[in-house]
Amino acid sequence: MSRCLACITCLALLGVAQQTAAAGESDKHQDLFVTANVQFTLCHELTHALIYAFDVPVLGREEDAADQISAICFLHPTHENRRDPQAVEKLVAVADAWRLEWELDKDSGDTAYWDEHALDIQRYYYVVCVLYGSDPLRFENLPDQLGLPWQRAWSCADYEYEQIVKAGKWLLETYGVARDPATNPRAGKVRVVYAIPGENKQRAYSILKASALFERKAELMNATFDLPYDIAIVATDCLGEATAYWRQDRREVVFCYDLVERFDLLAKLRRCILGSHTGPANRRPMDPARIRQCLAGIR
Predict the structure, then answer these.
(1) What pLDDT score was predicted for residue 3?
(2) Sheet containing 244-247: which strands, arranged edge to edge?
């Protein structure tokens, strides 16, 4: 009897340990989801800053160009041959955020077909396209895992990815710093400013400060580009407006703490829909029925 009780006790403890480990793994994916989307958004807005700083000609929509450069920044943040080891999971997280925003827009009826940005669902497919096109052999299962139609996947591999890489190379070769930036003290610098938020935005503030994403990106920008003027990255409370944007008149990227909170909400929604299947290795397409159930839970 005592041995059976001991077995039950061991199994119960094992179950607790497994649940704790699963919870820890889930928290890790959730934290990465938030910081990956912060990083993508920051890269997007800094691309707008570069376009205005250097008067870069843009064919097509500027918002599409900013998304293209942002995706490349994930795959090759400092050099063409140096890939971020977490790039795959990060880009999947970014794609998932766009997919969830699309579902939320449909649910609320607020889809802005007139906007200068592509539709959120188009941005979802675009990010997946870039990831697949970067290495079709390595990611041969990705279209089925993330629901990218093969008609689009083939064009991603054939020419879309190479077009984006070519644009990124041109930007660096044309405007990149070919010498020690310290030799040009007149060059503009990117600086980071955090507005101290109220109590209700402290979590978002803490996430940004702890990640040091703004500081690292500012350092990389200063080392890579000979800017014609100073640029500020300003984190602030936007009083419920979950957004980030480039202000040319003030030469600053405004990043709202509210947007960090939005990413945190999307991370919880994704975990509700996918459970433990959030990592790229064991992904599966989002089930529409499960999406509806989880959306109902956050209304």
Answers:
(1) 37
(2) 190-194, 231-236, 252-256, 244-247
pLDDT in tens, 197-224: 999 999 999 999 999 999 999 999 999 9
**Which residues of the chain register pLDDT less than 70?**
1-26, 77-83, 178-186, 299
Q: Do 267 and 34 meet the contact criterion of CB atoms below 8 Å apart?
A: yes
Phi, psi of 275 (to 5 degrees): 65, -130
Distance (Å, whole) CA 218 – CA 46? 10
Structural contact between residues 214 and 234, judged by C-beta atoms closer than 8 angstroms: no
Q: Any bridge partners for residue 9, and if so which?
A: none
Domain residues of the chain, as ranges?
26-298
Q: What pLDDT is attached to residue 15?
A: 38
- Tell me which residue has tokens 């290495």: 135
Give the pLDDT score at 245.
Answer: 97
Q: How far apart are CA 15 and CA 21, in angstroms?
A: 10
Q: d(Cα 88, Cα 55) in Å, to the nearest integer?
A: 32
Residues 271, 275, 278, 281, Cα dihedral to 10°? 180
pLDDT tens readout for residues 176-193: 876 565 666 667 999 999
